[in-house]
Amino acid sequence: MDIIFYHPFYDTAPWLAGIGSRLPQANIRVWQPGDNQHADYAIVWRPPYEMLAGRQGLKAILALGAGVDAIVEQDRANPGFIPAGVPLIRLQDAGMALQMEEYVFAAVLRYFRRMDEYQHLQQQGRWQLLEPHAYADFTIGVMGLGILGRHVATQLARFGFNVRGWSRNKKHIDGVISYGGGQLAEFLSGTRLIVNLLPKTPETQGILNASLFEQLATGSYIINIARGGHLVEQDLLTALDSGQLRAATLDVFTQEPLAENHPFWQRPEITLTPHISAMTLPDNAMDQICDNIAAFDSGQPVSGIVDLAQGY
Question: What are the protein's UniProt keywords (predicted)?
């Protein structure tokens, strides 16, 4: 079994050692430009076009993350980038769900208990009591109910929040009211806080926009931990200026790192983090990737196969 590995900035040595120990029968090498030798599997993150296009004999491509939009978009722009018939397999959870839950809970409770506003009052030297939010009027909407979104929505509901979920198709999740693709307006009406965990597809590009914000309760909150391309940045600034949105927590951006002169830096209502809501945990990721390779090689079912038409 021959495996090629590519990541633009990871230290590859621990990955090669870890994968090698899990798949001792495999010959694994770091892909270099000009390497057209045989490979059964490719383990990748943002691979260059020449790594995959036209490659013969490849059985599967395994992504080093849960999001595969960069690979799918490159295939749409350059048909044949993913060789015909070769499945693309993404990570499912691999330790990311708990991190997402922690991140969302930290942001939700900060807004629910109005800690962000108390911080601003402290900076102004003002001693002022604010009326607390109530669970009854603090409905949370989770956009995207895949594995990560399902985990987040379930934990928020267990904590006592009224939770709604919206996805392409309605899902059954205990404690969560589910809405399907054509029910976005109904999902948004009365929602006080949005958590975005949608996959990035042509249909969801720019979905966090002025039209969506206007359908939320006045003074609502946005938490975006999916992709920067979901957010129309100027629409967010306008909604904050008008008071339609009170605050936003953003972990992902159209361009990363965020430019030093970006207006988000100067907005106290916006909390910024550098794409850290859920980091790939090497041991968890290697366990899942190697289990999938072993299953694929023996003809067993494999989890995480991407529907290229849908983009996730």
Answer: NAD, Oxidoreductase, Pyruvate
